[in-house]
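Quick one, tokens below:
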């Protein structure tokens, strides 16, 4: 198994698990006991400012799609759609994750009054985003073209003369 497939599998599993967790959060504050604690610890906002279940579900779907794209780019699952679009999508996922991780470290690291959220952001959320972003960037940079027909590699045969024209 190649390093690209290993990193792609790790990133896809991490993104998929994070997507499942967001799906759970549309109906439950698990693993915390209540919405107020969830809001403070996971999101860093007051309970009244929590994102809607629909927005949380959209994030879950986006993470699921990102998981599929990384797995497909790493050649772990069948590809659907144009290879160039898939590669660009995987680069986009990597960029978003790396930006979220770096911004989280900077903003949480510069706060003068650490909260429960900032402690978790520095210890888990931002490093996890950076790790998943790095794995995803590796897949985007190193994945080969899909197996099977590669038109660039085809050798064109010289035209054979037509019996009717002799040419």
């Amino acid at each position: 198994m190649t390093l690209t497939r290993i990193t792609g599998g790790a990133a896809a599993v991490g993104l998929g698990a994070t997507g499942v967790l967001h799906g759970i959060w549309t109906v439950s504050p698990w693993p915390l006991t209540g919405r107020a604690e969830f809001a403070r610890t996971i999101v860093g906002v007051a309970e009244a400012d929590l994102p809607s279940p629909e927005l949380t579900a959209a994030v879950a779907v986006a993470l699921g799609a990102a998981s599929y794209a990384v797995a497909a780019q790493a050649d772990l699952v069948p590809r659907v759609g144009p290879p160039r679009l898939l590669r660009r999508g995987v680069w986009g996922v990597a960029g978003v994750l790396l930006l979220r991780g770096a911004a989280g470290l900077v903003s949480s690291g510069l706060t003068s009054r650490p909260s429960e959220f900032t402690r978790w952001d520095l210890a888990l959320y931002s490093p996890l985003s950076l790790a998943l972003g790095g794995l995803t960037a590796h897949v985007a940079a190193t994945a080969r073209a899909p197996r099977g027909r590669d038109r660039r590699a085809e050798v064109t045969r010289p035209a054979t003369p037509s019996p009717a024209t002799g040419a």
